[in-house]
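User: Teach me something about this protein's shape.
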Amino acid sequence: MAESMESLRVLAEKFARLEGVGKKTAMRMAFSVLEWDEEEAREFAQAIVDAKEKIHLCPICQNLTDRELCPICIDEDRDRSVICVVTDARAVLAMEKVREFRGVYHVLHGLISPLNGVTPDQLKIKELLTRVAEGEVEEVIVATNPTVEGEATAMYLSKLLRPFEIRVTRLAYGVPVGADLEYADEITLFRALEGRRDV
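Assistant: First, the predicted structure itself:
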């Protein structure tokens, strides 16, 4: 039945383009929209259009914002001598939830991945180097994921930043709280040992 309704099929296909949404979930979302009244549907559509029109990259840190600068770059209490480099805006949200980091961020918008055709010049690396060259930065924390692409990007950045004679660090990855060592893989255990600290 659903396949015979062209507008429903198209709507489900649009939802299926969202990251992490499969065909069945997309069809459920499409049916949910049909249960809304017309005003709710228009508000939903307008929210999408507004987000696309108003949200842009912060000219300083490349994070997403709907203002001239993002709230973190505006915040005068942030420590501008420490930049945490992350893959995307979602990582900024994750770091901010911890409420421990008081530095600023730089968003790369991807990771180096030759297999997927992503080269360094497609990332916001040039903008990072420009910020560091201004002389205020003392440390860059590379907080890319511990994947092959994340590690490759971290190594590439560390080489580029070496001439600036600043501290370049990497997040310590290790055994999560509540996990058994016997179930941890070799890379996780290696990172846990590498990132050990005094107690």
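Now, about its shape. Residues 87 and 110 are 5 Å apart (CA to CA). The chain has two domains: 2-54, 78-171. If you'd like, I can walk through any region in more detail.
User: That's plenty for now, thanks!
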